[in-house]
Amino acid sequence: MPWIVHGGDLLYKDDRGWHLSPAVQGVTLDSREVRPGYIFVAVKGAHHDGHAYVGEAVRAGAVAVVGETPVAAPVPFIRVPSARRALAELAAAWWGHPARSLTVVGVTGTNGKTSVVYWLTQVLREAGIRTGMVSSVAVETGRRTLAARLTTPESPDLQRYLAEMRDSGLTHAVIEVSSHGIVQERIGEIGFHLAILTNVTREHLDFHLTMENYMLAKARLFERLVPEARGAVINADDASASVMRSHAAAGPVVGYGLDAGEVRARALRLEAWSSRFVVEGLGDRGLPARLPHPGRYNVYNALAVAAAAVRLGVEPRRAVETLARLGPVPGRMQIARSPDGVLVVVDYAHTPDGLGQALAAVRRFAPGDIWTVFGARGGRDRGKRPEMGRVAARWARHVLLTTDSPNDEDPAVIAAEIAAGIPGEVDSRFIADRAEAIRVAVEEARPGDIVLITGRGPERTQTFHGRAVPMVDADAVQAALARRGAALPAEPGREECRS
């Protein structure tokens, strides 16, 4: 039996899904966004329960409330088993199921998602494929470009972005898909034509509790492949590869890697500012490639991009040749230097694996000591903190611990938990003010040294007890470099650190 409200004149659900009357003016889970005619979906979150805001939503004009726990209200209340699932279904219905009109690509993994999304979007556009993008840094819909708030937006926002892409005449959408976005149904009602895995390393265990849960959450993306899917592109060198393959619902599975997979890089030469290799598995002969970005991890990202582009119809040689023109990703390996030769790098690395990869990459940049400046997010996986300390100490001579976004935790306690993994012979200090920590590292570094600042990338604020405080790492770098002398581009063609 369908749920029916007002005799079916407002909304109802049957075997085909939700049906909304033209009188409905929007769908939201945020009571502050409710306008007259909206449906308010009461979602139980980690910190707030939407059922507590039903009264506020009704006063703002909500014409119906959807939730898991009945609440007395002067408008119809529809009880559902999963408010998040209903939210995704209602949002898709309100926006006319835009994903059905697009070829949708999902990119998941612990590290590298944003780079793969940015670069695949560029390769597809250069091949003449009209492509939109949803990433943790920016959203591009063909109608507008806006800063992202979440890695994977809540379903009403995500469905709106897809609708704008459809209405702008775009044909493809590349979406960065987080494990939270999967578990919380933000990608509900979206069928994917291609799913990509970068890797699975420790992260978000405060939410998933175990690595197995985390891995299986990622695998759920591959279950969402539509019957006509182009398949899956999976890092064959990653320990999770077989699990992801087993969850792929449709289409061929293509593995990529340096050691395993159908698509491989051989004859790899890692240079200070770039990498050269030959891509095998995309044609009858190996295709020479140059990537203007450092590090083995970026070679993996590039292989994922090339393999995915070919699955989406780009000619193999064109896909590989485009790698040489891939631009910088905001907040990823942004590089500046002082006139006397101190290199400063801002990167988003915020996991033990990501930090280790970034440190290994910058080791090639200059002959001197490595200084690293980082912290850890408050309220997140505490178990990874000493691991990050051990990784930093393995590569860096100087470790300056500072704040990330401590949220409701004491920054000194967070730093102490990281420091537990740092041996005593390493120069390790805690400087609570992040801008001051950056200044100290840049000013004390000697010519030929490298300063790596990680954890936040392009983020513009830090959060302290619910209060957002402006802070841009690249701006702090420029201020520190100005005290040392005017900043210069680190390398022709490389993007200098800036906001």
What does this structure look like?
By secondary structure, the chain is an alpha/beta fold. The protein folds into 3 domains: 3-86, Udp-n-acetylmuramoylalanyl-d-glutamate--2,6- Diaminopimelate Ligase, Chain: A, domain 1, CATH 3.40.1390; 98-325, UDP-N-acetylmuramoyl-L-alanine:D-glutamate ligase, CATH 3.40.1190.10; 334-489, Protein-Tyrosine Phosphatase, Chain A (Alpha-Beta Complex), CATH 3.90.190.20. Helix 3 (113-126) crosses helix 9 (296-311), helix 12 crosses helix 13 and helix 14 (434-444) runs parallel beside helix 15. The longest helix is centred in the middle third of the chain and has 16 residues, at 296-311. The relative contact order is 0.08.
Attribute tags:
single chain, 499 residues, alpha/beta, Udp-n-acetylmuramoylalanyl-d-glutamate--2,6- Diaminopimelate Ligase, Chain: A, domain 1, UDP-N-acetylmuramoyl-L-alanine:D-glutamate ligase, Protein-Tyrosine Phosphatase, Chain A, 3 domains, 11-stranded mixed sheet, 7-stranded mixed sheet, 15 helices, 27 strands, disordered N terminus, disordered C terminus, magnesium ion binding, EC 6.3.2.-, magnesium, nucleotide-binding, Mur_ligase_C
